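STRUCTURE:
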């Protein structure tokens, strides 16, 4: 008789159904259901409780209950629970999901850069971090990072831009020019840090474009690679590695903390990789404010539906919702009102059944307030709008852009970003100079 087909998507429900059929001892320790890289589920418990006969009996009943429900994703009914060292189980604390009282599901994945956890809000006392993210590329993230850096520095803030779109490096070339890049970049730090040389790279992996020299604030850029890519592809294959001591998320935090300690920026802009693979940490695990970019297209909404459904299923919506701002990128000027009305309607269809139901009632008067006191439950935050402009098309290097080119596309976006930025993080910011300064045309570099 062939085994019943049970898909990966059904495993969570099948596990919960099995748990409902058994009674765990009231004194039971945490029980971990480990889902392997191949998707098979096994039971692990600290060996300190191996002599507990009541617990052993309950775990055997759980094994028998799981076997017929998991299909090929389970082990045979003769498979015994694994009694393991508590130190091993301690490694999964914080990443495992509690799916029943005292029972945790831990997913083994190829990288710890995942969408399963969401850090708490920024504790304060450090730079304000923004991540620019999209489920698909080609929506203007990198251009926006450059424009935001210019605008914030124009207002007197010190800005660090970090290129984390490592598979498509280009932000550094667009802002620097090849001859004046720093010696190293983000990929260099990650591979050298593996052998204890990260501190040797850190001072030589940022540079300042010439146009920043005319602004009240500073702009520093950490590009994907230095002036010479070297063995860039070989390095890229090692960037996302976990080590015995730290997962990749912890290594990324250490890089940002090191850069911030050295440069003392007030704002950090992270140009994230698009898509879902290896981009999660920059969105969910750094306590960042998140700018979600998109076009009004089926591909945009399908990608965000998958992400939002994931957050909702794991109960993470309430932890992430207040840090999200949506950006309508490359908005056409022709019939813009109709386009934006449709964008907002699709955003509402995406938002309401997935993130909005986690909110408490009442009006949202914070940075994401909608209109004038309209309750947050009534609608998602209005998108910030960037308009399509011929002056920003055609691959023109960003370092050659002037304010006359930037303003038509970004004036609305910059006004709304600044409003939310000041509302979210009030505090003294040096005033803007009386004369405006463009992005400039001259280049110098610093290591």
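SEQUENCE:
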């Amino acid at each position: 008789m062939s085994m019943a087909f049970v898909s990966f998507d059904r495993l969570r429900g099948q596990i919960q159904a099995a748990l409902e059929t058994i009674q765990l001892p009231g004194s039971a320790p945490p029980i971990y259901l480990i889902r392997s890289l191949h998707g098979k589920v096994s039971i692990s418990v600290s060996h300190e409780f191996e002599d507990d006969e009541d617990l052993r009996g309950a775990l055997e009943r759980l094994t028998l209950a799981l076997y017929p429900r998991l299909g090929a994703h389970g082990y045979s009914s003769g498979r015994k629970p694994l009694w393991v060292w508590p130190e091993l189980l301690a490694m999964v604390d914080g990443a495992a999901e509690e799916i029943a009282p005292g029972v945790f599901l831990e997913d083994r994945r190829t990288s710890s850069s995942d969408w399963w956890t969401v850090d708490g809000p920024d504790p304060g006392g450090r730079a304000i971090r923004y991540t620019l993210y999209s489920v698909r590329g080609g929506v203007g993230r990198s251009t926006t990072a450059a424009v935001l850096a210019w605008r914030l520095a124009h207002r007197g803030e010190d800005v660090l831009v970090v290129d984390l779109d490592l598979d498509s490096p280009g932000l550094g070339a667009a802002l620097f020019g090849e001859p004046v890049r720093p010696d190293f970049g983000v990929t260099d730090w990650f591979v050298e840090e593996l052998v204890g040389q990260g501190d040797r790279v850190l001072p030589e992996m940022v540079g300042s474009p010439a146009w920043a020299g005319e602004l009240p604030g500073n702009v520093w850029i950490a590009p994907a690679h230095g002036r010479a890519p070297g063995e860039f592809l070989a390095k890229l294959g090692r960037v996302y590695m976990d080590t015995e001591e730290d997962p990749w998320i912890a290594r990324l935090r250490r890089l940002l903390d090191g850069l911030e300690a050295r440069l003392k920026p007030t704002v950090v802009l992270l140009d994230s990789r698009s898509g879902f693979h290896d981009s999660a940490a920059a969105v969910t695990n750094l306590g960042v404010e998140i700018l979600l970019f998109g076009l009004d297209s089926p591909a945009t909404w399908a990608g965000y539906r998958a992400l939002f459904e994931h957050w909702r299923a794991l109960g993470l919506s309430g932890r992430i919702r207040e840090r999200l701002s949506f950006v309508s990128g490359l908005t056409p000027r022709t019939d813009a009102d109709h386009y934006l009305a449709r964008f907002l309607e699709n955003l509402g269809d995406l938002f309401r059944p997935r993130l909005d139901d986690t909110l408490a009632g009442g009006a949202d008067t914070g940075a994401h307030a909608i209109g004038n006191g309209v309750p947050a439950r009534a609608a998602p935050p209005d998108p910030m709008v960037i308009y399509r402009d011929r002056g920003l098309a055609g691959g023109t290097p960003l370092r050659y852009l002037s304010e006359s080119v930037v303003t038509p596309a970004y004036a609305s976006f910059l006004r709304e970003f600044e409003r939310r930025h000041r509302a979210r993080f009030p505090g003294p910011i040096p005033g803007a100079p009386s004369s405006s300064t463009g992005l400039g045309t001259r280049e110098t570099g610093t290591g």
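REMARK: The two ends are 68 Å apart (CA to CA).
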